[in-house]
């Protein structure tokens, strides 16, 4: 099995629980992973603290964290061969910058690299309702090869906690990223 090199970006959109659950699931899938590079916006750190009441993102020592302006991070270049980028949650501002090729920080630069290299970009957008600008930006990113995976949970697995609700989205994201995982499958469990 070829191990994956993953970029995880966390923006300041509400939904830090998605990032936390994604981190927890990636730790469980470590046998399928060569590297996880993480970049968080300043707002992402503030939202995590506000929504989750902690700074536990600092506890994920298996991942390498990069400053939002570190253009020397390996995934700022296509030569590093990171195969998948997951932005969870993805703010509409970040999505707009990606859609229009504005690489003003490491998140938007990494997304630009992933798209130009024809690799996998998964944007877990977390906003509602969508304006026409949002919809057009989602269309543009999709036409460029990205995948828009809205943070819309499913409930047929009968989740019992907020984290279990978030996991319904994260499981879909991990499927889209090509991971082999145990998760609830409709009419299979």
Automatic annotation (TrEMBL):
Superkingdom of source: Bacteria
UniProt domain Flavoprotein: residue ranges: 4-176
Top-rank EC class of the record's enzyme: transferase
Alphabetical UniProt keywords: Flavoprotein, FMN, Prenyltransferase, Transferase
Pfam families referenced in this protein's UniProt entry, alphabetically: Flavoprotein (PF02441)
Reactions the enzyme catalyzes: dimethylallyl phosphate + FMNH2 = prenylated FMNH2 + phosphate
Similarity field: Belongs to the UbiX/PAD1 family.
HAMAP family cross-referenced by the UniProt entry: ubiX_pad (MF_01984)
UniProt-recorded name of the protein: Flavin prenyltransferase UbiX
